[in-house]
Hints:
Helices cover about 55% and strands about 15% of the residues. It is α+β, with helices and mostly antiparallel strands. It folds into two domains: about 1-50; about 60-205, Reverse transcriptase/Diguanylate cyclase domain (Alpha-Beta Plaits), CATH 3.30.70. The protein has a five-stranded mixed β-sheet with strand order 2-3-1-6-7, with helices on both faces. A two-stranded antiparallel ribbon has the order 4-5.
Amino acid sequence: MPDPLTIASGVCAAGALISSWQLHRRAVQAETEIAVLQAELAAERHAASHDPLTGLPNRRAFHRLAAALLTRADGRPLIAVVLDLDDFKQINDRYGHAAGDQVLVNVAQRLADFAGGDPVARLGGDEFAGLLTAPEVERRWLEHATRRLHDVLAAPIRLHSASVRVTASVGLAPVTCPAQLSEALDRADAAMYRAKSIDSPHLRELLDTASSGDR
């Protein structure tokens, strides 16, 4: 006949093993729930700070990223850029809004590639902005950068039924400190709208170099 003490010890050991397994399962479940909550929180934060169509930072996030970039200590010049697609409504009217969305996604990707690691954003509609690192703030460099950006954006975009080209009106303005960011963006925006009123078959551009000293 089995020893009652042995039986009791076995029961206790089995109970402890079961309790340990249950605690482990609960710990794993808790860790899984925490990971899910953290992922959901990260997704909510990303959604709150990024454009849902293009994935670029939105206006508020762009100002935060740009202000952080302006506080760096290396002293390299920074250029605020604002661009607006020309006659974008015609793409929506002719090819449909899905095609228009595809064009915006392509433009966003090209602008991000052009900027490298510098912040860019979709401000809304077909208007985008960026803060670009420049080797110098001279009119020649600004003109060259504007032409390069124009050419990058003007490359054909393949849609389901057609290949389209888009052009953009671009405004640039130097900015040297966080306090000047909003002012520089306003000047770049004003320059962009003045550029939109210029009818040029090659390039619509107007550079605001008021802060560059190159007059």
